[in-house]
Amino acid sequence: MPETPRSEPQAPLIWSNALMFALTAAAALVLVPWYGLTHGFSGADWGVFVFFLVANGMAITAGYHRLWAHRAYEAHWSLRALYLLFGTMALQNSVFAWCSGHRTHHLHVDDEDRDPYSARRGFWFSHIGWMLREYPSGREDFSNIPDLRKDRLLAFQHRYYVPLAVGLNFGLPLAAGLLFHDVLGMLILAGVLRLVWSHHVTFFINSLAHMWGSRPYTEDNTARDNPVLAVITYGEGYHNFHHIFAHDYRNGVRWWQWDPTKWLIASLQVLGLTRRLKRTPVFQIQRALLAMQFRRAQARLARLPASGAAAHIESLRARVAHEYESFLAALAEWARVKEQRLAEKKRAVLEQWEPARLQRSLREIERRLSRQLRRMRVLQAQLA
Fold first, then answer.
1. Cβ atoms of residues 224 and 211 within 8 Å
2. What does the domain layout of the chain look like in residue ranges?
3. pTM, to two decimals
């Protein structure tokens, strides 16, 4: 984060955004406790609130983000329509605007002049401030979404975004209120509170997920992995992984990492609603993890005192050097096997057993890197 505040002329205020965020937050702070204490919310109110909240959140994470911004998989038209319905209700702009800004963010992450919500400009700016004023970094430029502009459904949403967003935010809670005979309670809880909560939970990915957490895969940007944020953001909290492997349909890549968005996408594949799910090869993930381990080990070795337990320090240096040589050898062998496999495919003269043989070679290299990763973690503990 910058040591001194960024000095720049104050950009013009976007009154529509400022009023929308201020009024909905004020309404939630005042109306929710008032109605809860004077009338009480029914179980139906809370049930619809949770349903709309999850539907809005997953439409952003699975739809806006992983499907449209990163093309991490393909979806059936009916699923895309549901994403559009609840994504529009989430009131985070059209798919065109959202994805264009997000692709710019990935291309220029942390650049204070070109990243629309650079975390290096502070928590307030990256969380909500970037939407309150007409900053040059936030100007719309749809030249980076030529694939999305061909989609007529997305073009329709962009053209009629405002009436659609207003209609859905009032219409769906109103309809639920009429159905369960509590119009005001439903409008307050499933309408106002749901919108405010959904907004700020999503905004945490631009702010907190670039400030709080670990960086196991790369330190080239501010993105962090944070399991706490992952719980409330439907898996988006594993942000360090996402920024280095953006086209993977998963953010929580380990089976035990909380990522309901990846589980939804994978489950819908069984029903034929999603397909061509993109996964980062295990080797590439292990390579990134080990590269960071070596980078940190070398930094810690450089900080060790010249005097003291010289023999022990030299032993650690030798072990790190040996592990690094093994790492480079594995990378070279992986490249050789992959090149051999590609060449044989091109010649189209492989026997049935040869693809399996090459696949076994690649899996053996992955296992070696996995064992090396465990050894490097032990070394890191000793260096610490």
1. yes
2. 15-275, 282-383
3. 0.85
